[in-house]
Amino acid sequence: MLSFAEEIYLLALDETTGRPMISPRDIEMQSALVGAILAELTFLHRIDTDIDKVYLLDAAPVGNPVLDHALFLISGSTESQLISFWMNALRADSQLIENHVLQELVDKKILQQVDKKILWVFPTRQYPIIDGRELQNIEMRLRNLILSDEIPEPRETVLVSLVDACGFFQDILSPREYHRSQERIARLARMDAIGRSVANLIGVINKACIMMMHI
After folding, report:
1. What is the number of other CB atoms lying within 10 angstroms of the CB of residue 159?
2. Which of 43, 90, 158, 192 has its CA 20 to 30 A from that of 200?
3. What are the strands, taking DSSP E only, across 21-160?
4. pLDDT tens for residues 150-201?
5. pTM of the shown model
């Protein structure tokens, strides 16, 4: 089973170029990857969340360097902090998260690492998809869920909230399907506290950036 971060990263990749359609340096991608890490820790019963706070349940490492790094930071806090606090704190590690997710997808033979040079001088790295079945499976699951009335499993609720925060549903669904499904997408996305925090953080940062542009 792929992690939330791996699923989000696959959805972000251009299948032809092997480059993210949303850069990991963009606010949406950074926030979604961090939210994916926190969500994974909840399903591993290391942390718990309520409407706005994160609570440590178990500080024992899980054997994943990125998850364990986040867990180490959370366990070092003397009191429970807001989800938004840890979202902001972990955004500084978005490059670490991206590198780990890419390596995991390469190790699982889903992506291929290709080193190239632009104009035969500037090195660049791409990650074209080797096996598109994983991506197709993610898109099919999400599409079937959104276009039906079924009650999602907890992991699916988290994934919907992260995918919505990145704006990927406009690529997964046709324009007509997306227009008809916006209310259901919003309703499902609101069911997950971490997903709501991801969307709120993206909104706050985007608003701050817009304000800075007009100063």
Report:
1. 25
2. 43
3. 47-49, 53-56, 81-82, 114-118, 122-126
4. 888 999 999 999 999 888 999 999 999 999 999 999 999 988 888 888 887 7
5. 0.84
